[in-house]
Amino acid sequence: MKPAKMDLSSYRKEFPFTDKVIFFNHASFGPLPQRSWNATEEYYKCLKLEKIKNMDKVAFGKLDEIRVLIADMIKAQPEEIAFAANTSYGLNVAAWGLDLKPGDKILLSDVEFPGNTYPWTNLKQKGVIIEFVPSRNRCFDIDNFVRAIDTKTKVLAISFVQFFNGFKNDLKTIGKICEEKDIFFVVDGIQGVGCLDLDVKECKIDLLANGGQKWLLSSPGTGFIYLSSDAKRKINPSFFGWMGVDWELNFSDLFKFDLSPFPSVRKFEIGTYPYSLIWTMRSSLKLLWEVGIKNIERHNLALLDLLIEHLKEKNYQITSSLDANHRSSILSFSGKNAKNLYQQLRKNNIIASLREGSIRVAPHFYNTPDEMERLIELL
Ligand SMILES: Cc1ncc(COP(=O)(O)O)c(C=O)c1O
Fold first, then answer.
1. Cα(137) to centroid of ligand 1, in Å?
2. What average pLDDT score do residues 173-201 get?
3. N or C: which end of the chain has fewer CB within 10 A?
């Protein structure tokens, strides 16, 4: 599927708040596009029986569409995608589904978001060893990763993009090393998927866990898991439910207790779905698809280029990597009093965030150069 070339500014009407505030905080949460709100409301109208529909057909149909839209976005197959409530769910699917034994080692980054450490440190109760790979300049360091690998190393779990400085990891190189060393490669995609191009096959990712609440402009409570067809054999569902088997949408004969799990990753979808959120997510994914992830990536980098130029001129300290291979839609910088600056921005209706002592600026496709100029003016 190829999205049409679009004038990005035509999407501003999806975000009516833009006439009041400048929102550069997509690394925290993604505001809901108007059309996704309308879609959600549409579901609730059905739930209120304002509209009488076969709800099973409608909701399950949208689930299938979500799998296709996500697979297209990360270059996977729809049967490798499962709906998930957040990133943590997908990470736990890997943590508890892998056959890890006492003494097995899991490698994490020492500058990882805690959402991608707790599911792993929780495995200490099984005797699994957790080792944090030392970062270099607060970025994941491949040489230190290679040094940390030994015969007991079974898993590496890292973020696609680091939450506080926007460092985009070289997943292709890291994935190749994991494949060579037979290490299960888990990626937390939430800070990159939706604004950066990603090919999960090329990067040899075994499992990608992703919440929908940031760059995917969906609601909290949405997300997905990608589990490669090869990796699926290594993961045993550690919990399982009636939505993990195929009822062929016939819920009138339910005393069937020996149905087999779905052969697809869908077997990790355990119970009744949050249908309203599914309607939200589908609508947001369609919007991103229309705009095109490559267009979004280019647009966001160009907006941040304007900021970088100014920050360099005025001697702010840029705390993100400026290496083109490691840039993302997040840029962080600090000055004399970052906290004060952050508050001043907020007072002037510019919403960014303060992370690890730096101001984090995270624009999305509907932000304009004028908005970035306004931030620059205030600085
Ligand atoms: C890198 C990263 N992973 C995960 C999360 C959130 O995890 P979850 O979707 O499980 O709440 C965040 C931010 O909230 C994040 O920045």
1. 22
2. 98
3. N
